[in-house]
Amino acid sequence: MNPRRIFAVFLRQFYLMRGNFPRFLTLFIWVVLDIILWGFMTRYLNSMVGHSYNFVPAILGAVLLWGFMNRVMMGVAMAFMEDCWARNFLNVFASPITIGEYVSGLVLSSIATSTIGLAIMLGLATLIFGLSVFSYGIMAFPFLLVLFMVGIALGVFATSIMLRFGPAAEWLVWPMPAVLSPFAGVFYPLSVLPHWMRSVAYILPPSYVFEGIRTIARGHAMAPDLLVRAIGLAIVYILLAVLFFMRTHRMVVHTGRLARYSAEGG
Amino acid sequence: MVLSVSSLRKSYEGKTAVDGVSFQVGAHEVVGLLGPNGAGKTTTISMILGVLSPGGGTIEIDGIDISVSRSDALARTNFAAVYAALPGNMTVMENLRVFGLMYDVQNLPQRIEELVDAFELAPFRHQRCGALSSGEQMRVNLAKAMLNSPRLLLLDEPTASLDPSAAREIRDKIRAFAAENESGVLWTSHNMYEVEAVCDRVLFMSHGKILLEGDPRTLPARHGKATLDDLFIAVAREPLTLGEI
């Protein structure tokens, strides 16, 4: 791995953000709207139930963490899409950069962009709606870690889909988090799901995080083995996503799709 | 040899695009890869650039087999093509910095300044590449292509969209690059006047094979044609009458 090549991929994203305010705005505009909407929703729900239950860590915290995972995923996917839209693949993949370096550069870009998004979400949720990240105790870090890893895995998977099916496949990428959210139990316990949906939820690491949030909000401790399972699953998904990307890259190099990619505008 | 291609093959969906092509490019040499559309030129270049895997055969850049050490081989090459513009949403300097890092160029700021001077890009330093004229964009592309002082420079129709004055300027710079460095150039073009002016040797491709090879100034007469243009047309229309080399 050559760190300068990894940095090149990151630097490209930095230049694009720096040179274009709307691009920079997209880093946080949607998450800000989500936090404001759900912040008032939780305030209303709290006023309904009095002091018997606090919806802020359970609902607003879940929105924040789900938003963070989406930002991580989109951080990877958007960095890739920029090369896609600029028809830059030939320039990039005909250079000495390796697949590992390119994916690492996408991940580095995503770390930067999702950290900005997380900081703004946290600031808003804390200052306006009184969410304290400390309400999850030390579990806040593994929760973020699991969602970060899943966001990376989803982002790499999404880029593989675009690499395989061409630029038009970005329309398959945007709804990915929305497809996962009913199974992940972001806003409700998994126990309300039908059996088949619960079976899917058990193999999704975010579902462990959101169950854990609700457990902590009720004043209980999360079982450590569930957290270990979530981290283990997230690692497996990252490995599978990277293998899928490498396999897809080999395939598009073999079939000539990569060489012709620039011509496949639609 | 800076490039050694041996028995290169590629088929797509049962159709043969490149059929057992072998050739070499030496240092200080500019070699023209010519042929009608669909002859297999761009497929050959794509395989040399590592963005298309060969169905058979080998490609060695500066003695390094691209199938064995892809990254090392590509670090010794670079390219500019009319269909591979640099991202138009970044400035000239930003593009050169990003690609300089990608090619792991040492003393990058100094190298960029040398190329900005050489290609007269100073007035456009902070302009987005997408806002430049075709000629200016091609100069930026060529500056990027020379960032790593490649042993092998691949140019796919680099003057296709340029006016005669800009095209001559580019040709002069490419000739100077090959003459002054231990590098070779593989050049595709449909402009036979340009090929005659620039190339030391040409390879005529048709239907995925190299039909003819030789000095562009003497090759037409050897095949009973008055000009390189006539020879090109013969290769395109009646390849069987010329025979394989």
What does this entry look like structurally?
The complex is a heterodimer of chains A (266) and B (245). Chain A is mostly helical. Chain A has helices at 3-18, 21-25, 29-49, 55-85, 89-93, 99-129, 140-165, 170-173, 176-184, 195-202, 205-217, 224-255, 257-260. In chain A, helix 4 (55-85) packs antiparallel against helix 6. Chain A is globular. With 245 residues, chain B is of the alpha/beta class. Helix content of chain B is 36%, strand content 25%. Chain B has 10 helices and 10 strands. Chain B has helices at residues 41-48, 70-74, 92-102, 108-118, 134-145, 164-180, 192-198, 219-222, 228-237, 239-242, and strands at 3-12, 15-25, 30-34, 56-61, 64-65, 77-81, 152-156, 184-188, 201-206, 209-214. In chain B, the strands form 2 sheets. A 6-stranded mixed sheet of chain B has the order 6-7-8-3-9-10, with helices on both faces. In chain B, a hairpin with a 2-residue loop joins strand 9 (201-206) and strand 10. The longest helix of chain B has 17 residues, at 164-180. The radius of gyration of chain B is 18 Å and the shape is globular. The mean pLDDT of chain B is 89. Chain A binds chain B through residues 2, 4-5, 7-8, 11-12, 15-16, 19-20, 82-83, 86-98, 250, 253-256, 258-259, 262-263, and chain B through 10, 12, 42-43, 46, 49-53, 70-72, 74-75, 79, 81, 83-91, 94, 97-99, 101-104, 128, 144.
The greatest interface here is:
A-B, 35 and 36 residues
Mean pLDDT of chain B: 89
Please compute the radius of gyration of chain B using only Cα atoms: 18 Å
Major sheet of chain B: 6 strands, mixed
Low-confidence stretches of chain B: none
Taking the sheet with the most strands of chain A, its summary is: none
Strand content of chain A: under 5%
Instruction: Let me know the number of strands of chain B.
Output: 10
Classify the oligomer: heterodimer
Helix content of chain B: 25-40%
- Backbone shape of chain A: globular
Beta-strand content bin of chain B = 15-25%
